[in-house]
Amino acid sequence: MSIQVKVAATTANLGPGFDTLGMALSLYNEVSLERSDSGLQIEIEGFGKGEIPHNDENLIWKAMEKVFEKQGVADKNFHLKMKNEIPLSRGLGSSASTIVAGLLLANEVCNRPYGLDELLILATEMEGHPDNVAPALLGGIVVSAMDRGEVLYQCIEPNEDWSTVVYIPNKPLATKRAREVLPTSYSKQDAVFNVSRASMLTLALMRGDLDLVGRMMEDRLHQPYRLPLIEGYDKIFDAAKQGGAKGVALSGAGSTLIAFCERKWEQEVLDRMEDAVCSNSLDGVCKILHPLQQNSYFE
Questions:
Q1: Does residue 146 sit in the same domain as residue 8?
Q2: For strand 141-147 and strand 2-12, is the pairing parallel, antiparallel, or unpaired?
Q3: Are 170 and 283 in contact (CB under 8 A)?
Q4: Is the pLDDT assigned to residue 222 strictly greater than 90?
Q5: Cα 289–220–222 angle (5° rounding)?
Q6: Annotation-wise, does 89 bind a ligand?
Q7: Which of 148, 173, 180, 218 places its Cα 20 to 30 Å from the Cα of 52?
Q8: What are the φ and ψ backbone dihedral angles of 132, each rounded to 5 degrees?
Q9: 228, 215, 187, 151: CA torsion to nearest 10
Q10: Which residue range forms the structural domain that includes residue 45?
Q11: Residue 90 is assigned to a ligand binding site
Q12: Is 124 contained in some domain?
């Protein structure tokens, strides 16, 4: 038995769509599975090597166990090899990618007893919210909501002419820390501000209106509290817009910043952002990442 799965990074929130909107990006974690004669074995290459557990505490195995337990499978004789391109704790959905990969692998081992909707429920149970796991599993842009334990979602196909440029700081920002800085309550004005922009943003995404997407990326629920945790965020925002980006936002809980632009301007946006990193002595890298039409697949 030999199975390989490749799952993409994701960017969540897209500004005002807090815990609701997500999009798959062209950066991947790959996992291969083979039979083992000596119990569970896990190899790790790339991000997380030296940090991620090599035993049954590994998140990918925990995801696999979730399927196996439901199917009555007690087998642990597997050799897993993880190749991680998605950095940890940067707001690019590394945990969502790992969870989805584990669920897909275990589902394949068990001859696919679960469809995508059922796998999405399992993934959401593990992650706590669907905004990253939904696009990690389904690809594209996904609008999601929880209703009495059910994950409701709608998929939007990204415009082929769109691109993103990300600034990925070398310093991680733990989701726990990013959650701690958020207020426990919000004013009515701030709630209305976000509802109006999240609604308009969803419509703009459906219509492929990048100008409107850029105008609707402001937020009052999480970005004003999280952005100050990221050194030089304002310099990156300014540089991206000077290069032609229509909008810039915090990716997920951070620390990555993501700029949205037309593909014809992606190199100019990248150059401006890299200049800002250099001139302000910031510690991080910039990359061009394209929105994905589809995502998880086997090789």
A1: yes
A2: unpaired
A3: yes
A4: yes
A5: 60
A6: yes
A7: 180
A8: -95, -45
A9: -90
A10: 2-156
A11: yes
A12: yes
> Which residue among 156, 185, 202 closes a domain?
156
- List, for residues 73-107, the tens digit of each pLDDT value: 988 999 999 999 999 999 999 999 999 999 999 99
CATH number at residue 17: 3.30.230.10
91 appears as a binding residue in the annotation:
yes
Residue 253 CA: distances (Å) to CA of 26, 88, 230, 261, 285 = 19, 12, 11, 21, 18
Per-residue pLDDT at 296: 63
**What whole-number distance in Å separates Cα of residue 183 and Cα of residue 277?**
30
Residue at 69 is within a domain? yes
Co-location of 172 and 139 in the same domain:
no
What is the Cα–Cα distance from 173 to 19, expressed in whole angstroms?
17
Mark which of 131, 156, 181 sits at the end of a domain.
Answer: 156
Which residues 6+ apart lie within 8 Å of 41 measured at CB? 54, 78, 79, 80
What pLDDT is stored for residue 299 in this prediction? Answer: 59
pTM: 0.93
Please indicate, yes or no, if residue 251 is contained in any of the structural domains: yes
Domain total of the chain? 2
Same domain, 150 and 168: no
In a shared domain, residues 205 and 143: no
92 is in an annotated binding site: yes
Is 254 among the annotated ligand-binding positions? no
For residues 109 and 103, what is the distance between their CA atoms, to the nearest angstrom? 10
Asked if 168 and 281 sit in the same domain, the reply is: yes
Is 97 flagged in the annotation as binding?
yes
Ligand-binding site membership of 93 (annotated) = yes
